[in-house]
Design goal:
By secondary structure, this protein is an alpha/beta fold. It has six helices and nine strands; from the N terminus they run H-H-E-E-H-E-H-E-H-E-E-H-E-E-E. Bound molecules: S-adenosyl-L-homocysteine.
Length: 207
């Protein structure tokens, strides 16, 4: 099967399993080629529903996880979104078609440089190098924050840099290597956190 056929097959499967629901999100999955964000040897597996290595010990999330997190974020055309963990850049590319602006930060320099190049054609994505647990004060406030690495906690910078009524999606560490995907909403300055499902992300690091 050609990659483009595999892509449509995967999208149909994500729809039938209930991971992809919104018309615009489905369209974004059609427009962005996942293979463009995967280094050489793994490219042919781009439309398997699996996480894949992107180098530096990191992974591109499985398509169903990108679908779940994108749908949870309820992207709006007016949103400014902050992503912690650019990785391959795929999640940022998907979101960029659904919102006004994406600000994404990657800790690893090699991945940062690769993603910056890959995303240079997307006018509404800004890629930063650094530790996303501190947020990016000069780019804040954000309507939404998406964290794509497993975090021990919700950092105060995220809460502070989120707009009133804003939403945060974050995998919160539970046990070794596993997290609960959590959604938090900021209301009257307080975050109300809902823990949803077990997930497995690479860990958030500080160096
Ligand atoms: N959203 C990515 C998933 C990448 S995996 C994609 O679509 O491919 C998570 C990424 O988070 C890894 O690349 C890892 O290097 C990065 N990361 C870990 N700790 C970080 C931190 N404190 N700040 C920014 N990025 C971090």
């Amino acid at each position: 099967m050609e990659l483009c056929d595999k892509k449509e097959f995967l999208i149909q499967s994500l729809v039938s399993r209930g991971y992809l629901r919104s018309r615009d999100v489905i369209e974004a999955f059609r427009k962005v080629n996942r293979e463009d964000f995967i280094p050489g040897e793994y490219r042919r597996f781009a439309y398997e529903d699996e996480p894949l290595p992107i180098g530096e010990g990191q992974t591109i999330s499985a398509p169903h996880m990108v679908a779940i997190m994108t749908e949870l974020l309820e992207p709006r055309k007016s949103d400014k979104v902050f992503e912690v963990g650019t990785g391959s850049g795929y999640q940022a590319a998907i979101l960029s078609l659904l919102v006004k602006e994406i600000v994404t930060i990657e800790l690893d320099r090699t991945l940062y440089e690769r993603a910056k190049k890959l995303l240079s054609g997307y006018a509404n994505i800004k890629v930063f190098h650094g530790d996303g647990s501190k947020g990016i004060p000069e780019e804040s406030p954000f309507d939404k924050i998406i964290v794509t690495c497993g975090s021990d906690r919700i950092y105060s910078a995220w809460k502070e840099q989120l707009k009133e009524g804003g939403m945060l999606v974050v995998p919160l560490n539970e046990g070794y290597g596993y997290q609960k995907l959590a959604v938090a909403r900021k209301s009257k300055g307080i975050l109300r956190v809902r823990r949803l499902m077990d997930v497995a992300f690479v860990p958030l690091r500080h160096i």
